Amino acid sequence: MCRFLVYKGSDEILLSKLILDPTHSILKQSFDSRLRLDTRRGQNNADGFGIGFYTDLKLGSAPCLFTSTIPAWNCTNLQRIASKTASRLIFGHVRATTEGSLSEDNCHPFTHGSLMWMHNGGLGGWKHIKRRLGSLLADKWYLGVKGGTDSEWAFALFLNTLEQSGHDPSACPPGGFGPTVLREVMKKTIAQINELTDSIPQSILQNEDVDTRSLLNFAVTDGHSVICTRYISSSKDEAASLYYSSGTQWVTRTSSPDDRQYQMDRKDKGGDIVLVASEPLTFERENWVNVPTNSILTIHHQTVMVHPILDKYYEGDPYHIRSSAFVQEKGLITNEKTSSGSQSPASIDGIRKTTAQSLFAGGLSPDLVRRSLTPVSSRESRLTSQLQTARHLASPPRY
């Protein structure tokens, strides 16, 4: 699997402050991924990388893209470019192949017009749905696929769905397509992928032992709004990890030029910066909030909203506990980590239920309680995460 990063800010930031410098930057994650446990390749995401970012509008609305099959840690040009390039909206991706060969055509992000897309995960039963997915596409989207990844085919399906919804993906509207349009098209894209996997004949599923569970951590932007998903087509399993952080400044702890200890500062109730990442860029737990499994995250004008994806895999029970076995098997690990010790699953479940009951008594909604029940080693960190989640969920959209 892969790792990705999204930055959206009211001001430009040097790419190096996200990609190169932080303690656990995405470059560091290319060879030391802490939340991707893959017995095939250890902690490496070494099958290429890509950086996409938006420049001044006078240069056009399409993003600038730099991809390479060289491992990110070994690319001198990446360090040269990142230290001299700034942007308000940045996508970064380091790749560990699941589908498609090692080539620049298969490196994320993928772009069309003003749109940019990347993916961490995989489409379930891919070889059994690829032909039928292609048959859903108009010729221009079918022929526009240059590589061999399921991720790029999913992007083609998104573009096709956007067009069918009455919006020209090539139009590059000055204010973007709008967060509502992108969010609804993303949900329709996921629904179509689920329909394709559901239609695989039972005989094939049984004879070839096909796993139809899809891990769909997608990110898409039109240069104005950003939509991210943390999703798995299962009601019993956790999705691959995804976090976000927001604040007013992304700065080092000291003014020393050698300081790599970045942190997200919040000087007031507003937010000028939003980061979304497969893995946190720092080890400051209180800076990062888990995105709940099977949720869609929207960023518009630095306002963050998280909504559940309401389909047959949605689980509304706040006591429901998902298994992390599948994402660990796929070389990923869930956000939901239990503290060290000898607690059994039953005892952890009991703690969660007790916590949920106390939160209900405090007046929090069941959905917010479910989002907040993430066991961690520090009670203070857990409460901080809950308060951050509550603040963002309660913030009214500024559309």
Taken in chain order, the helices and strands follow as EHHEEHEEEHHHHHEEEEEEEEEHHHH
Name the overall outline: globular
Regions with little confidence, pLDDT below 50 for 5+ residues: 36-42, 338-399
Spatial gap, N to C terminus: 34 Å
Question: Main β-sheet, in a few words?
Answer: 7 strands, antiparallel
Query: Helix tally?
Result: 12
Describe this structure in a few short sentences.
Residues 2-279 form the Glutamine amidotransferase type-2 domain. This protein has helices spanning 16-19, 26-29, 76-82, 126-135, 139-143, 150-164, 179-198, 202-207, 325-329, 345-361, 366-372, 379-394; strands at 3-14, 49-53, 64-68, 86-94, 110-112, 115-122, 215-221, 226-230, 243-247, 249-252, 262-265, 273-277, 289-290, 295-300, 303-308.
Commentary on this structure:
The protein has 399 residues and is an alpha+beta fold. The protein has helices spanning 16-19, 26-29, 76-82, 126-135, 139-143, 150-164, 179-198, 202-207, 325-329, 345-361, 366-372, 379-394; strands spanning 3-14, 49-53, 64-68, 86-94, 110-112, 115-122, 215-221, 226-230, 243-247, 249-252, 262-265, 273-277, 289-290, 295-300, 303-308. Helices cover 29% and strands 22% of the residues. Helix 11 packs across helix 12 (379-394). 44% of the residues are buried.
